[in-house]
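User: Second chain of the day. Same drill as before.
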Amino acid sequence: MGSGQPGPGWHYALAALKAARLLAIGRLKPGPEATLFAHYNARMRPPLAVTEILEARGSAAEIRRREGDALLAALAPTTLAVALDLGGVAPSSEALAALLIRWQDTGRPLAFIIGGAEGLDPAVLARAEALLSLGPLTWPHFLVRGLLAEQLYRAQMIREGHPYHRPWRP
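Assistant: Same format as last time:
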């Protein structure tokens, strides 16, 4: 597993993805972003439980602080928090599937955190046990929900050996 690739038979390590939460800033309105998220979230077993936190007002620093306080308040102390952040690790899909197994093997509740337009407060990044990036590009925070849901669904399919994921394609 040193290459980030799972070992033989690894997709049988968990029978099913344990319920995970998505904590996200902002209310997702009807539109293409909501449709994309709903499409992949509905395919996951079980789907992500979503908690939307209202967007704060004020200066950029004040917004990050207020939203950060609300996100931290929504996390149970035992939760393994994974923050989506540009400075995080950007694993391959196969490596993300292996990370999910490792995180879920802790037996702790798992939550993914998506900040708002101003990003995540340093206190949220400090609380997170993992920082995950969807690559070096900057994505709108509402679109990140759909991208994350697709990658989590893909990770499930990789673990099940389903042909949805085609590793031979770039």
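Confidence is low (pLDDT under 50) at residues 1-15.

User: Great, on to the next one.
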